[in-house]
């Protein structure tokens, strides 16, 4: 798998993401700096990692969404390249307009850092085919701006189109309809607040995130 992990100033989960990709795919991803103008050709997968890009100033993800590299990320997403945004990466994807809605301050006004149950709402996407639809997995969250908001019409539409990939199995941050992860219309962009890269092996105490990376790999094998 020819993957790239984008690093912004303030990213802090880029290494974990790169390690997860390498351990599961067998190939180390390219590490790409936000200020680079272009992504290399022929990428199979792009990951936007978690963190506090630009110190979360303005709004989480808002400044990163306007980084030079994001023009290439948006163009790749529009060509159908799989793009996964985790936590701050999800925030960047909504700010870049690749996903609907916004991530607001958590309803409780506090940073939430714990492992939470997630229901797999759509086990058919290229990111989730390794999970059974309706199953419950446990994945860590760590954020203060994870409160997913979209208007009712948008929520009904994305629910109807099977674009809610994951839903929290308990109250976490005040997200509308407990939405934890959202797909774009074409199904090749996924944003999620929980961190699958923090749950890929026994040393993590939990390997429920592994199937996400295995699903992405499997989708490339059949593509
Ligand atoms: N782990 C993360 O990516 C943190 C995301 C984010 N900036 C927040 O706290 O909301």
UniProtKB/TrEMBL annotation:
Entry's Gene Ontology BP terms: 'de novo' IMP biosynthetic process
PROSITE patterns in alphabetical order: GATASE_TYPE_1
Record: active site: 87, 195, 197
UniProt entry keywords in alphabetical sequence: ATP-binding, Cytoplasm, Glutamine amidotransferase, Hydrolase, Ligase, Nucleotide-binding, Purine biosynthesis
Pathway(s) it belongs to: Purine metabolism; IMP biosynthesis via de novo pathway; 5-amino-1-(5-phospho-D-ribosyl)imidazole from N(2)-formyl-N(1)-(5-phospho-D-ribosyl)glycinamide: step 1/2
SMART domains: GATase_5 (SM01211)
Cell compartments where the protein resides: Cytoplasm
Catalysed reactions listed for this entry: L-glutamine + H2O = L-glutamate + NH4(+); N(2)-formyl-N(1)-(5-phospho-beta-D-ribosyl)glycinamide + L-glutamine + ATP + H2O = 2-formamido-N(1)-(5-O-phospho-beta-D-ribosyl)acetamidine + L-glutamate + ADP + phosphate + H(+)
Pfam families with a match to the protein in the record: GATase_5
Recorded GO CC terms: cytoplasm
Enzyme Commission number, as recorded: 6.3.5.3, 3.5.1.2
Keyword set includes DNA-binding: no
Subunit structure comment from the entry: Part of the FGAM synthase complex composed of 1 PurL, 1 PurQ and 2 PurS subunits.
PANTHER family per UniProt: PHOSPHORIBOSYLFORMYLGLYCINAMIDINE SYNTHASE SUBUNIT PURQ
Functional note: Part of the phosphoribosylformylglycinamidine synthase complex involved in the purines biosynthetic pathway. Catalyzes the ATP-dependent conversion of formylglycinamide ribonucleotide (FGAR) and glutamine to yield formylglycinamidine ribonucleotide (FGAM) and glutamate. The FGAM synthase complex is composed of three subunits. PurQ produces an ammonia molecule by converting glutamine to glutamate. PurL transfers the ammonia molecule to FGAR to form FGAM in an ATP-dependent manner.
NCBIfam families according to UniProt: FGAM_synth_I, PRK03619.1
Name of the featured protein: Phosphoribosylformylglycinamidine synthase subunit PurQ
Organism the protein comes from: Aurantiacibacter xanthus
Taxonomic lineage from the root: Bacteria, Pseudomonadati, Pseudomonadota, Alphaproteobacteria, Sphingomonadales
Gene: purQ
